Amino acid sequence: MKNHEIDYKLYGEEMQCVEIELDPQEAVIAEPGSFMMMNDGIQMQTLFGDGNDKGFMSKLFSAGKRLLTGENLFMTVYTNNASDKRRVTFAAPYSGKIIPLDLSILGEKIICQKDSFLCAAKGVAVGIEFQKKLGTGLFGGEGFIMQKLEGDGLAFVHSGGHVIEKELQAGEILKIDTGCIVAFTSNVNYDIQFVGGVKNTLFGGEGMFYAVLRGPGKVWIQTLPISRLASRILSYGTGNRKEEGSILGGLGNLLDGD
To answer: Which of 113-122, 194-203, 215-224, 236-245 has the highest mean pLDDT?
Structure first.
């Protein structure tokens, strides 16, 4: 293997964290802000990009690509400098599931949502995956610019809500909201399709486009994208409480002092 070989253990149900066990001189890379705790003897180092690039210009280019995906310019590397095993733990930023991906058995490449990467064995390359088709680029929304994880080690991504794993057969098609995609293997074909119909477009409430995934390959789907959760929280925070009815809703606002 080119990448470091790490062991792990998941804790929790809907608010999960992953504990990574590192042998001496093994290392794991992680997104800034995902760190939870670690044993003494592990050294933390902040690097441009994912730490795989050689030379200043290469590192700068890698950091620029990460900026396009909305991620931090830096990546944090945790290395076990002790003489025996040590552990470091990372937590997902919101409620959902952490998905372990063994790249060595998944074609050594996974395409995932730009905000879903959590951590990976050192040596896994974290880059961007542009969708080549014009329609996908213009209307893909959250799915336009995605991340790609390449290597033969373990990587961990997180989803919102519950995660569903589907195995698509050759030619099998799955139509899905772009925000509900967590990750898929590189052999899955990805495109954007117009919903169609005036009523569907104006009043459907699901957006004008959805993603079309064509097998063969594996797809990981989340039930609650963070964008959908944030939108719902914002609407409740700025609007009237319609679910309580017109009379009870007004009474509730009076009791609350509104």
So the answer is: 215-224
Q: What is the pLDDT of residue 187?
A: 95
CA atoms within 13 A on the CB side of 19: 11
d(Cα 127, Cα 113) in Å, to the nearest integer? 12
Global pTM exceeds 0.90 = no
Find the domain containing 201 and state its range. 7-240
Phi, psi of 30 (to 5 degrees): -150, 155
Q: For residues 104 and 39, give the distance between their C-alpha atoms in angstroms, rounded to a whole number.
A: 28
User: How many Cα atoms occupy the beta-carbon half-sphere of 72 within 13 Å?
Assistant: 15
Residue 252 maps to a domain = no
49 backbone dihedrals φ, ψ, rounded to 5°: 65, -145
Q: Tell me how many domains the chain contains.
A: 1
Q: What type of residue sits at position 221?
A: I
Whether the CB-CB separation of 193 and 210 falls below 8 Å is answered with: yes
- Of 64, 88, 82, the C-alpha closest to 24 is 82
What tens digit of pLDDT does each residue of 65-104 get?
Answer: 656 655 667 789 999 999 999 999 999 888 899 999 999 9
Cα–Cα distance for residue pair 104/217, rounded to 1 Å: 15
- Contact status, residue 29 vs residue 118, Cβ threshold 8 Å: no
User: Other C-beta atoms within 10 Å of 245: how many?
Assistant: 11
Domain with residue 138: its CATH number is 3.60.160.10
Summarize pLDDT for 214-248 with one digit per residue, the tens.
Answer: 999 999 999 988 777 777 777 776 655 554 444 44
Residue 22 is assigned to a structural domain of this protein: yes
Is residue 11, in this structure, part of any structural domain at all? yes
Encoding tokens for residue 20? 């990574």
Instruction: Tell me if 204 is assigned to some domain.
Output: yes
Q: Within 10 Å of residue 257's Cβ, how many Cβ atoms?
A: 5
